[in-house]
Amino acid sequence: MNAYLAFQLTGDFEKDIKQYFINFERQETYQHTIEVLEELDYLKKLYGSVEEGSEIACLAHDLGRVVKHEDILEFCMMNQIEVTDEERLLPSILHQKLSGHIAERVFGISNPSILDGIKYHTTSRANPTELEKEVFLADKMSWKEAGYREIAQEIKCAVKVSKDSGMRLYLEDMHQKRDQLKVYHRDSREAYVYFTGGHHDHL
Q1: Do 43 and 134 contact (CB within 8 A), yes or no?
Q2: Nearest 5 degrees, angle CA 70-CA 74-CA 77?
Q3: Is residue 103 a contact partner of residue 118, using CB atoms and an 8 Å limit?
Q4: Is the pTM here over 0.85, yes or no?
Q5: Where are the domains of the chain?
Q6: In this structure, what are the phi and psi dihedrals at residue 81, rounded to the nearest 5 degrees?
Q7: 8 A C-beta contact, residue 137 and residue 163
Q8: pLDDT-based confidence at 200, cuts 50/70/90?
Q9: Cα-based distances in Å from 82 to 74, 78, 146, 149, 157
Q10: So what's the architecture of 9-147 in CATH?
């Protein structure tokens, strides 16, 4: 279990991120990471700039994917990472918290806003920062799998209006499909209410 936290840095952040994924044979996750960076660049071109720290957060957002599925809950217990009852039903959703922990412990990232961008990139939450929105949107826009490409393209169109439009579109889509989800995370429900003015009574 300690292997996930035992990694020697060279001081070249991007190379170290790549090598970390290679060490755990998660090259496909690294490829996804590069695609998320490309979408962040799309946002940068669209708006003229992105938040300082968004690129670092995108590079580190999926570090937790290296933790094997069967190790996730034990890793959380050993590292005092809070696990809610609904997260126990779908441990893979915890990868955002694991990513934040690894980013901090292994890669020395200490900036709270960057860590929050990593820790909420899957679920979002009510009143997210601009950095959190950028990482969340770049992640969703990078999806290429069948069944996800369409929503990825719709978000890409929506962000031409604003980041909030992209957030709203995705969260409304998730809310409509909530009965098909194994877990409709509390943070996502609260993000939906925040961005749409919906009411908790209807959730």
Answers
A1: yes
A2: 155
A3: yes
A4: yes
A5: 9-147
A6: -95, 125
A7: yes
A8: low
A9: 11, 11, 32, 32, 36
A10: Orthogonal Bundle (1.10)
